[in-house]
Design brief:
The chain is an alpha/beta fold and about 280 residues long. Helix content is about 25%, strand content about 25%. The termini are far apart. Bound molecules: flavin-adenine dinucleotide. Flavin-adenine dinucleotide (FAD) binds next to strand 4 and strand 5.
């Protein structure tokens, strides 16, 4: 007679077979910035091709994997044997082809992120075999300046670019305006402050919307920092389509507002597959 215990072990064996069939990477580390943000590093079984900083790949887990206990039930339940896959920007340097870093934001009712947030070092997952995307920051002509504007996990593609190229001094000026709610969610703060001090051509302008009283930096919305001239003054960068290419990534409201201001007030044109421009946008 089959018992519940037999049925349980058959299910576990089935899960193990699916994991072995599809998973091709192992979690190396996981840093929790807050309940909603985490940085994970993974090692892939087979090296990928060298990519261009700003590109993305997919991460995947099966529907039977556990969700973090503080998540809510899936808004749209995932089938147990479905490999749930989503796109994630790579935050590590473009020459690192075995180990990749991702900066993740938790959607409590989402299908994949509550499962990604439950991963621990040593756990297996799927990482896409292709690295794709047209948000390639290194394609800016060397004589131009680069203004990168990112909020939350929108910092990831910019970290990949800085980690790959800031030391090469390829462009006369690079500025990164980074927005977050609080200091613990302002990812890579120590690394970016180090770059700001070490490289004269790089300026880091962080701003927090909900800081502790001890925060001495900016507390403004990025839109207001642009309008008031703070970005141009402190970033030592011209917001002029003839001189500077702008890259935007992150909160959709910020992206929409900043894009409108750049186009209407500064004459920027959005870069598309059909028409070249000086304004590049990655929408999550
Ligand atoms: C090119 C690209 C790069 C990306 N890079 C990153 C990255 O670096 N880091 C990152 O974290 N994400 C990134 N994303 C987003 C990522 O692909 C997923 O969409 C995201 O992680 C949600 O996946 P999920 O399966 O948890 O949620 P899903 O099940 O896909 O549900 C997400 C959608 O459902 C809605 N939703 C679900 N729960 C909530 C909630 N609690 N509140 C509000 N709306 C909700 C929203 O409309 C949301 O878009 C990127 C996307 C693209 C296209």
């Amino acid at each position: 007679m089959k018992t519940n215990k037999d049925a349980g072990s058959a299910v576990r064996r089935w899960w193990e077979e699916l994991r072995e069939k599809s998973y091709n990477a192992t979690v190396v580390s996981r840093d929790e910035l807050s309940a909603n943000y985490a940085i994970i590093r993974v090692v892939v079984d087979k090296a990928r091709e060298v990519f261009s900083a700003g590109q993305y790949t997919t991460l995947g887990l099966y529907g039977f994997e556990f969700r973090v206990p503080y998540a809510l039930p899936d808004r749209k339940p995932a089938l147990p044997d479905k490999l749930i896959q989503r796109a994630y920007s790579i935050a590590s340097a473009s020459t690192d082809t075995r180990e990749f870093e991702f900066f993740l934001s938790l959607y409590r009712e989402g299908q994949l992120t509550p499962r990604l947030f439950a991963l621990k070092p040593g756990d297996r997952l799927y990482v896409g075999t292709r690295i794709v995307g047209s948000f390639k920051i290194a394609q800016v002509p060397p004589e131009k300046q680069i203004l990168m504007i990112g909020t939350g996990t929108g910092a990831a593609p910019f970290m990949s670019f800085l980690r790959s190229h800031v030391h090469q001094q390829t462009h006369p000026r690079i500025a990164f305006v980074q927005g977050a709610a609080s200091l613990n969610e302002l990812a890579y703060y120590a690394e970016l402050r180090f770059m700001h001090r070490a490289f004269e051509h790089f300026r880091h302008l962080p701003t927090l919307t909900d800081p502790r009283p001890t925060w001495l930096g900016h507390r403004a919305w990025i839109e207001d920092m642009l309008k008031s001239g703070t970005v141009e003054r402190e970033g030592e960068i011209a917001i002029d389509p003839e001189l500077t290419h702008v890259y935007l990534c992150g909160n959709p409201v910020m992206v929409e507002n900043v894009m409108a201001w750049l186009i209407e007030e500064r004459g920027y044109e959005r870069h598309t597959g059909r028409q070249p421009g000086q304004l590049f946008i990655e929408e999550y």
